[in-house]
Amino acid sequence: MITVVIPTLTARAPRAQQTVDAYQRHSRDVPGGIWLRVETDVPTCGEAWAMGAEDFQGDYLHFGADDLEPHAGWWRPLVEACDAGM
How many CA atoms lie within 13 A of 53 on its CB side? Predict the structure, then answer.
């Protein structure tokens, strides 16, 4: 499983939802699935990512953003790099 942490603001909720939808669409083939954590209205992205990292589940952790959408296969390089010890 991969935990994906996405910081956002209440005012950006529609944009964040587009990002969440894209992760759901392009993550169907992730072994174990994904767990999406949307951290809303945290003062900085770094703090939101840290909050998500403290409570992540699964084998891998991915820091996203509310204005970046993944493409099909986005997770493969992540898993390959982590499994290679990078």
Answer: 9
